[in-house]
Write the structure tokens for this entry.
Amino acid sequence: MQVALAQLDNHLNKGLKSLYAIHGDEPLLAQEAADAIRATARTQGYTERTVHTVAGAHFDWSEVLAAGGNLSLFADKQIVEIRVPSGKPGKDGGAALQQLAQQSRDNDSTLTLVILPRLDKATQSTAWFAALESFGVTLALAPVERSALPQWIAQRMALKGLRVAAGEEGQRTLQFFADRVEGNLLAAHQEIQKLALLYPPHAEGAGSGSSPGGELSFEQLEQAVLNVARYDVFKLSEAVLAGQAERVQRMLDGLQAEGVAEVLVHYALSEDIRALVRVKDAISQGRPLPMALREQRIWGVRERLFERVLPRLSAPALAALLQSAHLVDGIVKGLKQPDWPADPWQALHRLANSLCSQCNVRK
């Protein structure tokens, strides 16, 4: 049984199941979902909790299997929590999880909570995950994408009695907030908690540290919210293909500050250019665009971005980008190129900006 995160509270109010599996790469969402399940369990008499973290290929699953029947003298019910940080329980672990899932049907004294990272399609097709889904409840925690982050922030602020101004000014404030915390949802949550302490939502006329009606100005957020954004090269690729020039430059600065290797950033950019060239060539040879994208293993968000930008990119423009990527490859490896910056990061900025500009060309 699958349950969306937004429906978790309603689900728990209707009745607690004996098996839950949470999977996703967003620590804040995973923590909150697990906390909600544990809190409901405590109200129903689950007073004892044991935690098992699966580490290494030689993890002893027999201890986990035995835990379900080992209640202490002082507990009627217990929570058995199994954390699999790798998302790969192995052959023995897969068999153990299937057994636990099957046993959960007739075990009212033990609530089993399995916590996993984001799982790919192949892992979700395994027998052990199918057993968790068949006998229990699974929650897939999708990340909050950058486009949805301002609204997510506004909703979280509202829970603390805070809000921004209406209209364009408020949207500007939320976009600024999102820029500061992108890729770091836990930090965004902490920043909102800090704002609630700095500017408690009191009535008009309260002290200077209060926020009349809970409304915060752009200046208050600018002074209070730290720059805790975290970026990765995959999101950089999406931003470049979307033609988001300012965001791309900000992300490159962030990746440099975080110590990400130049060669990884170059690989992400050049691989996009090569993929665009391959798909463009396939289309020119008569292949339909969906088929060409599948052949290059391009799907999801990247598929939609490729569909948008390919009509805008001419063959000569792609050839020029490919040549630029080749030159930057040399710069990243310590070579100097005429008419190009010697600094690898400056060269990466220029390459990313060139691709970003081409993705914004109107036909």
User: Anything to note?
Assistant: The domain at 5-140 is CATH 3.40.50.300 (Rossmann fold). The two ends are 47 Å apart (CA to CA). The chain has three domains: 5-140, 146-224, 233-359. DSSP finds 17 helices and seven strands in the chain.
